[in-house]
Design goal:
This protein is 0% helix and 48% strand. The chain has 79 residues and is an all-beta fold. The strands form two sheets. The protein has a four-stranded antiparallel sheet, with no helix packed on it. The chain has a three-stranded antiparallel sheet with strand order 1-2-3, with no helix packed on it. Strand 1 and strand 2 form a beta hairpin. It is globular and about 40 Å long. It starts with 6 loop residues before the first strand and ends with a strand. The mean pLDDT is 95.
C-alpha cells in the first residue's frame, strides 16, 4: 500500500499562500481530519488564514469507501 503524499496546507488565495497548521493530501483532503477545529459562520466552515485573514472553506465529502472526510475547496476574501 502506497503512502499518500502529504504537504502543508497553504492559503488558497493566489496572492497569499501562507502556511496553515494543517496537513493535506492530494486534492486538499485533510490528512488528519481536524475539521472539528474549523470556525463556522452559519453553514460555512472555514480555516482562517493567519496572513491575509481570508477564509479557506472546507466541505465534507464521501470517499470511495463510503467514509466522510473533509477537504479545503475554495478561498473567500476577508471582509
Amino acid at each position: 500500500m502506497a503512502l499518500p503524499k502529504v504537504s502543508v496546507l497553504r492559503c488558497l488565495s493566489e496572492s497569499c499562500e501562507e502556511m496553515l497548521a494543517y496537513e493535506v493530501t492530494e486534492g486538499n483532503v485533510l490528512y488528519v481530519d481536524l475539521a472539528y477545529t474549523a470556525r463556522s459562520d452559519g453553514d460555512v466552515r472555514y480555516f482562517p488564514c493567519p496572513g491575509c485573514t481570508g477564509r479557506n472553506i472546507i466541505e465534507a465529502f464521501e470517499d470511495d469507501q463510503g467514509r466522510t472526510k473533509h477537504r479545503v475547496v475554495r478561498f473567500q476574501p476577508a471582509g
